[in-house]
From TrEMBL:
GO biological process, one term: proteolysis
Residues of the signal peptide: none
Cofactor(s), names only, from the UniProt record: Mn(2+)
Coiled-coil features, chain-numbered ranges: none
Name of the protein this chain belongs to: Xaa-Pro dipeptidase-like
High-level lineage: Eukaryota, Metazoa, Ecdysozoa, Arthropoda, Hexapoda
SUPFAM superfamilies: Creatinase/aminopeptidase
GO molecular function ontology, one term from the record: metallopeptidase activity
Species: Diaphorina citri (Asian citrus psyllid)
């Protein structure tokens, strides 16, 4: 898994160096796949590559058959690239986001750093004995606090958390177990906490208390989805 993750990280950096405005999303996917095989000897990806640009970044699990990484990338677009290799049967899963022209606008940088702060907060807090549900709430709290700071939301952080407003900006779960399968087994076992029922929480792929040697992804996000934000 360390090797698969290292090769995938290098492949993402290769894409970052080569992608440019005017290319198609699938060309970024091709760069990634070429690198993991040509350099890393990894013949397979662990899941369908997500190469979203511009508004496509708000489409969860973009890149599938009905949204096939076929948009032309425009100057100024933010990219959300979620790709990982599989090596000797073990998966990796890496998501990164950056502007195609290499220059963040003020707004892009703010949201990027809000999500980065959530990622780092969870990285620091996650340890054996901690509930994964609590980590999901922590990520939402960090992002909502940042949105409050710039006036995008009103109220208090406690009110926003009580009403589950975080699910409007992060409609998916924080992350998942990973191993032989990219969404590995063991998320919900008979003796473990059940799946939540609220938006966001019901998308969590595990509600377990973390234990030593568990391997999970940490994937907070902040999406501005037109169908949601217009409600």
């Amino acid at each position: 898994m360390r090797y698969a993750s290292r090769i995938s990280s290098e492949a993402h950096r290769s894409v970052m160096r080569k992608v440019s405005a005017g290319m198609y999303e699938y060309q970024a996917e091709a760069i990634f796949k070429h690198y993991i095989l040509y350099v890393g000897g990894s013949r397979h990806v662990a899941y369908t590559c997500i190469c979203a640009s511009g508004g496509n970044g708000a489409v969860l699990h973009y890149g599938h058959a009905s949204a096939p990484n076929d948009k032309r990338v425009n100057d100024g677009d933010m990219l959300v690239f979620d790709m990982g290799s599989s090596y000797c049967g073990y998966a990796s899963d890496i998501t990164c986001s950056y502007p195609v022209n290499g220059k963040f606008t003020e707004k892009q940088a703010y949201i990027y750093n809000a999500v980065l702060s959530a990622n780092r907060a969870v990285m620091e807090a996650a340890k054996p004995g901690v509930s994964w549900v609590d980590m999901h709430h922590l990520a939402n709290k960090v992002v909502l606090s940042k949105l409050l700071d710039i006036g995008l939301l009103r109220g208090t952080i406690d009110e926003l958390m009580e009403h589950n407003i975080g699910a409007l900006f992060q409609p998916h779960g924080l992350g998942h177990l990973i191993g032989i399968d990219v969404h590995d087994v063991g998320g919900y076992l008979p003796h473990c906490p059940p799946r939540g029922t609220l938006p966001g929480l019901k998308s969590l792929r595990t509600a377990r208390v973390l234990a030593e040697n568990m391997v999970l992804t940490i994937e907070p996000g902040c999406y501005f989805i037109p169908a949601v934000s217009s409600c």
